Amino acid sequence: MELRVIDKTDEELRIEIGGEDHTFMNVLKGELLETESVTAATYDVNPEQSGGQTDPVLSIKTEAGVDPLDALGEAARGVQNTAENITSAYEAGIDA
């Protein structure tokens, strides 16, 4: 996964996330929207650019005084925790 910051201000971030598709982006966007300091989160994949599918661009807006990179880090940790919980539940189910 390659990340490229397109635009960043104190409360807004646009970042390209290379090599990902709707599956991951929907999970990340959902976690961002559950993050208390995030006021908006969306992503776009524009297939009309470059003649085909492009890497998704994630847009985040946070409350005043909250760095959107911090919010992204918090959401990424949330996705990781969810994945670990699913793995643990799966392994417990196999061992039962």
UniProtKB/TrEMBL annotation:
Enzyme class: transferase
Organism: Haloferax mediterranei (strain ATCC 33500 / DSM 1411 / JCM 8866 / NBRC 14739 / NCIMB 2177 / R-4)
Protein family according to the UniProt entry: Belongs to the archaeal Rpo11/eukaryotic RPB11/RPC19 RNA polymerase subunit family.
NCBIfam families referenced in this protein's UniProt entry, alphabetically: PRK01146.1-5
Binding partners and assembly: Part of the RNA polymerase complex.
HAMAP family per the UniProt record, alphabetical: RNApol_arch_Rpo11
Catalytic activity: RNA(n) + a ribonucleoside 5'-triphosphate = RNA(n+1) + diphosphate
PROSITE patterns referenced in this protein's UniProt entry, alphabetically: RNA_POL_L_13KD (PS01154)
Ranges where the DNA-directed RNA polymerase RBP11-like dimerisation domain occurs: 12-87
Primary residence: cytoplasm
Localization: Cytoplasm
Function recorded in the entry: DNA-dependent RNA polymerase (RNAP) catalyzes the transcription of DNA into RNA using the four ribonucleoside triphosphates as substrates.
Enzyme Commission code(s) on record: 2.7.7.6
The keyword Protein transport is assigned to this record: no
Protein name in the entry: DNA-directed RNA polymerase subunit Rpo11
Highest taxon of the lineage: Archaea
